[in-house]
From TrEMBL:
InterPro entries listed in its UniProt record: Bac_export_3, FliQ
General function of this protein: Role in flagellar biosynthesis.
Family: Belongs to the FliQ/MopD/SpaQ family.
One Pfam family in the UniProt entry: Bac_export_3
Record organism: Acidovorax lacteus
Subcellular locations according to the entry: Cell membrane; Bacterial flagellum basal body
Name of the protein in its database record: Flagellar biosynthetic protein FliQ
Length: 89
């Protein structure tokens, strides 16, 4: 196993992690921004008002994009495990 191969596997894993996490992070960021603007306009500074909508948005995104995320992860793990014999020998 060469150092170049290890770096390639690591780079692929990090890019997969970024690809899978972007839908959840993007939606939670947008909801957090909207809630912050709402709190600034109404001057209501309740902690649960900031937390609950982001939690609900994350659950909705996981419900919608969860199968795609799981399928992508399983495909990556399958490809990685199947490449072990060619890497060792």
């Amino acid at each position: 196993m060469t150092p170049q191969l290890v770096l390639t596997i690591g780079r692929d894993a990090l890019s997969l992690l970024l690809t899978i996490s972007m839908p959840v992070l993007g939606v939670v960021l947008a909801v957090g921004l909207l809630v912050s603007i709402f709190q600034a306009v109404t001057q209501i500074h309740e902690a649960t008002l900031a937390f609950v909508p982001k939690l609900v948005a994350a659950v909705v995104v996981f419900a919608i994009a969860g199968p795609w995320m799981l399928e992508t992860l399983v495909d990556f793990i399958r490809r990685t495990l199947e490449s072990i014999p060619s890497v060792i020998g």
